[in-house]
Write a structure and sequence with these properties.
heterodimer, A: mainly beta, 5-stranded antiparallel β-sheet, two-stranded antiparallel sheet, 1 helix, 13 strands, 45% strand, B: mainly beta, Immunoglobulin-like, 2 domains, 18 strands
Chain lengths: 184, 262
């Protein structure tokens, strides 16, 4: 069915509204385990309140096809220290609530372009190239948080060695890739 | 881990109530035994953590005797928060000791039995065998020999010293072992540090109750947590202390031995 641009936009908006209204109620996942978090309820590791996933393909001509993939998740809950204390010579993090902190939201845009050479037509072995960019705007999506004694860029301790700092770990910045595929 | 990237991050925690930290050590060495009491502070705050100097501390032995501890009897500026036993004494293997700390209307207590520790037969050293270290000085490995009784499940804490200084990388090392990981005949347990000519190398072994061993194992997870990549989320170490106190009441028999590399 051929739809005009306006109809397409309206359809997407309706889908998003329905998703946002129901997602909050349906996807809040909590856990309660007697020996964890002093028996209080806490958010499950996989509690991701909102999830959005968009993907589309645009067929330009016989040679080029473009693809787009966009993912958006509410940040996952993690456990962070809320204080610190001394035990023997150790500078120890004080943990209070399990999964009491939400990491920043996760979102990522991937783009791809598929090149199907003209010489494929009429051949038994067909080939095509795929050029893609993973995480196009290179968002530093946090994966976890670590804590350590405050250090500068050269790994030297700042101050008297009692101050601590937190750092987020992120996995992949922008990653380009090229692949060549053969079909027979 | 080295391949992933790190970015600084501000933890903005709401005001969390400060908790009490009790560090008690009772050994079989005749001395004034100590208990150190302090508080937790905000994560972003530097400096020494505040000590508690007005708690009431005592240890009760299973034979009924009670030993009181007094805060900083020597009035030493660096010993704020340290409570020393009124008499010098050494714990006995097989006895159970109960610590009681009375502070601001709450009684924090813990009990532990003093368990035997393995005897060290001897120490030896040898030149490090790995030629790829690429350093100008020669490094030595120090090895320990001992017999470890296998009939009972034992837990140990190890400390390593170089010229009198406790060795600890980044203040994150904890060396504990369950005797399941140790053979009956320990034939050359290598110290996890390198030594050079002229050094005095020393090892100290503490016996641990199961609860103390669990505490140290949990402590490693908090100290060395990698943010969820491979380790489980951090949680405060399980302790034998009651009423939400942090820290540990450790009762240990201790052995030590040393040698000079010459």
């Amino acid at each position: 069915m051929k739809m005009s641009i306006t109809t397409k936009v309206i359809a997407i908006c309706l889908l998003l509204i329905t998703h946002i209204t129901f997602a909050q109620k349906l996807s809040k996942t909590e856990k309660k385990i007697p020996t964890v978090n002093l028996g209080n309820t806490f958010l499950a590791n996989y509690d991701r309140r909102h999830n959005l996933s968009l993907s589309g393909t645009y067929f330009l001509n016989n040679k080029w096809t473009f693809g787009l993939n966009f993912v958006y998740n509410t940040g996952r809950p993690i456990t962070v220290p809320s204080g610190r204390y001394e035990f023997q010579n150790y500078n120890v993090d004080l943990i209070t609530e399990r999964n009491g902190f939400k990491l920043p939201d996760f979102h990522r845009l991937d783009l791809s372009a598929t090149l199907t050479p003209k010489k494929n037509i009429g051949r038994k072995v067909k080939s095509h190239w795929i050029f893609s960019l993973y995480n196009v705007y290179s968002r530093k999506n946090p994966f976890g948080i670590i804590t350590q004694i405050k250090k500068d860029g050269n790994d030297n301790i700042i101050g008297d060695g009692t101050e601590k700092e937190a750092k987020i770990i992120y996995l992949f910045p922008i990653l380009p890739s090229v692949s060549y595929n053969i079909k027979f | 881990m080295a391949t992933s990237c790190l970015e600084p991050f501000e933890i903005n925690s709401e005001e969390v109530q400060s908790k009490i930290v009790i560090e008690g050590l009772l050994t079989d060495q005749v001395q004034n035994q100590y208990v150190k009491i302090s508080r937790t502070i905000d994560f972003n705050q530097g400096g020494k953590t505040p000590s508690i100097d007005n708690a009431i501390v005592k240890v009760t032995v299973d034979d009924g005797s009670v030993i009181s501890y007094f805060h900083n009897p020597g009035q030493d500026v660096d010993s704020s928060g340290y409570y020393l036993s009124e008499i010098a004494f050494g714990g006995l293997i097989g006895s159970t000791y109960t610590l009681e700390v009375d502070f601001e209307g709450v009684l924090y207590s813990a009990s532990a039995e003093m368990l035997p520790v393995m005897a060290i037969d001897s120490l030896s050293y040898r030149l490090e065998l790995d030629p790829d270290k690429g350093s100008i000085m020669d490094y030595y490995d120090v090895l320990m020999y001992s017999m470890e009784p296998q009939e009972r499940e034992d837990f140990y804490l190890f400390e390593f010293f170089q010229n009198g200084v406790l060795l600890n990388e980044n203040n994150e090392d904890v060396f504990v072992a369950d005797d399941q990981a140790l053979a009956e005949e320990i034939n050359g347990l290598e110290f996890p540090f390198d030594y050079v000519l002229g050094d005095t190398a020393k090892i100290k072994i503490y016996s641990l109750s199961r609860e103390s061993y669990v505490f140290y194992a949990d402590l490693v997870n908090v100290l060395q947590n990698d943010g969820g990549m491979f380790s489980p989320p951090a949680a405060n170490p399980r302790t034998n202390l009651s009423n939400g106190a942090l820290g540990l009441f450790q009762v240990s028999a201790v052995v030590s031995d040393q040698l000079i590399i010459e």
